[in-house]
Specification:
The chain has a single domain (about 5-210), classed as Protein Transport Mog1p, Chain A. By secondary structure, the protein is of the alpha+beta class. It has 5 helices and 8 strands. Helix content is about 25%, strand content about 30%. It starts with a helix and ends with a helix. A hairpin with a 2-residue loop joins strand 7 and strand 8 (about 180-190). It is globular, with a radius of gyration of 16 Å.
Length: about 210
Amino acid sequence: MSARRLTRALIALAVPALTVTALSAPATAAAKGPAVPSVAKVAKIYPHLAGGTSDPTSSKLHWPSKKCGKQGKVIKGAKATFALYSSADPADYAYTAAKPMTYVSAMKFRNAKDAIKYLHGTSKGAKCPVKDPSTGKDMKVKIKKIKFRLGDERWGYTATVTMAGEKSVSHSLLVREGKYIVSASAMSLDGKAPNTKKAIKLTGLALKTAS
């Protein structure tokens, strides 16, 4: 199994469900999305990322679809930016609780009405299972809610899953404030949970940067 396939599957588990559709959308240089935090700022929360890299990708956004593998219509005036932060030290790619994989997305809509419609519309969209790339079977995920206070609407969860012989634990948080929606995730592969307060702090940084 390639590292790329494993990473994509891990991200699909780590990020909130409403961003997964957007992740599959083709990137476009013309669709410059909202800003995401720089590596230097994220490194103040996660020191192992100091001197590391990120590869922000912007794309258009689509309304949630009711069919797996299908995209909804493009949302007029909506744009998104996604970034995965990587350490400069290859040894950190083990993604431990102390040095987790970190991911941020930021979405900007024409107005708060569209942002609310997109956020709430995901509950009516297709619930598509994530496949274990090593077996092709659906992965079983245990979910525990995270309580925190940011923005106008928010939700968060800790997901624990066994995949490709490894146990991963991720914190994923999502916040809507006005016409902006941001999400942030921290994931480990050593079976231990990353620091929850740091994940919340990363989400707050993403919200401040985007808006």
